[in-house]
Amino acid sequence: MGSRVFIVAGVLALPFALYTLIGGVLVPFVAAVIALVAGMMSMALHQRGQYERSAAAQVYGMGSIGAVMALAHPLFVDFGLATALMAPIYAALMSRGALRKRSWVFVAVALIASGVTALKFVVLPAALAPGFGGIGAFVVSVLLVGFAAARLGAGFEVHDASKIKTYRHLIEHVQDAVMRFGDDGEVLFSSHSAERLFGCRRYELSRGGLGERIHVLDRPTYLTAFADANQDGKARTIEVRMRRDDPEGTARAPQFIWVEVAFSPVVENDMAGSRHEVVALYRDITSRKDGEDAMKAARQAAEDASNAKSRFLATIGHELRTPLNAIVGFSEMMSTGIGGELSPTHKEYAGLIHQSGHHLLDVVKMLLDMSKIEAGKFELQTEAFAPSALVEPSLQIVGPMASTRNITIRTDIPSVLPMLTADERACRQVVINLLSNAIKFSHDYGVVTLSMKRQGQNLNISVRDNGIGMGPESIRRLGEPFFQVHDGLARQYEGTGLGLSIVKGLVDLHEGSMHAVSEIGVGTTMTVLLPVNGPAIKLPETASVTPIRREPSVQQTPAWQDARKRRAL
Fold first, then answer.
1. In angstroms, rounded to a whole number, what is the distance separating the alpha carbons of residues 488 and 194?
2. Rounded Cα gap, residues 202 and 212, in angstroms
3. What are the tens digits of pLDDT across the range 518-527?
4. Which of 157, 178, 156 is closest to 169 using CA atoms?
5. In 3-state terms, what secondary structure has residue 558?
6. pTM for this one?
7. Structural contact between residues 482 and 502, judged by C-beta atoms closer than 8 angstroms
8. Which of 448, 461, 470 is nearest to 403 (CA)?
């Protein structure tokens, strides 16, 4: 800003200086030239980042103008002294102590020049006497202003020194290591915490000592990040391995630690191609990396255990199926009298064996299905079929279970439903599992309702019961393998906890979704949404629906709200 003022003042004064030069007065022209030269030099130095020299050019220019004006002619003595005395004031406000001291030389030169001028023109007209009479008072006042400005500048310098001392104390005692690099990449400063981080003295980190501590595999990453900050002015944060020395010398091999390095460029100018100094923070993150490695190992161990469980279930399922088929088959032959007539007691025993065998076969079948789904080996055989075709076979299978407890199964199936592209056997298994689960947790003489409807591009299959219901925590865990709401050895309801897990797995394979709305003591509504056009929905084959309002979520359909109100009544 000051350099521009000098240039503008010189340009404005140049016409008047040329006019006086033609009249034989050289002083204004010299002052204007000095102002222009000082302003241009100051601006050039400022653009190169040499701010102290830029301020010095302005101070020297101001003092030179004052000295020339005081030496030239008695008419310019007052102006020359004022200009010369402004130099130390300007230096006190803009620069450090050394420049302030040198600026007083121009004041001394101006005073001497004014004395020489007064002696030279001792025989002056009386009209000029008042001008010399006011010189003394003017000099005294300007000296007082200059002294006050010098004291003010000294106060600012003390304040700056205090701030620098505070910042240095903070950097020296911060937990992270702080280092400053020059624009050539050389280490200019290292904090005391760097000694604790690297286990060496600070001087050992300069002259390539820091680069030698970087792991050879991480050096390209480190150098690239430093170049981005040094050359392009971009802040970067990286994680590298660096060597830490043992101050006691007991370690047999070098110890490498994980260090997070944050590079921050010191951008003082935006000149293209210029390099920047860089401030870097080094933080030891070895503990965090060890934790991440431990978590990764634990995750891998869990995945291995899950795979081993799936293989075990598949193996044991296949091994159990063969003897169970024999048990079911021979018990059925005994019950029908193929091997001879049995007494009523033996026939009852054979029926119990047959029933238990079927139960074990169902369990084995669920284990095999679950292992296939978890292993990703359950293949869907998709084809288009009518959703209503799922109802009758499912009711035939769960009908005996419902009859033993006098539970009524109702259906709400529209006469017109879109064709569903899916695996019919898998969808039938979904409906059977939902109905079986609803019957199991319903009270005697209860009601279970199976409904289907079109919902956008999906088929909505819902099973509602008025049984025991579930809490929010249990709803969040639905679909977990072997999870049961009533757990423990004294639980009232039998089952493996795989029914809803298989449902969720089959629905996910169809790229559908499963939802539950439940209230303890009121009942549960399980809803499955299956894409009408199969796992990969093809929009051109599905009629476009322009919603007038936002489609409500499955948990908030009007039918369910009405059902909840009826249950509450």
1. 57
2. 14
3. 888 888 999 9
4. 178
5. helix
6. 0.42
7. no
8. 448
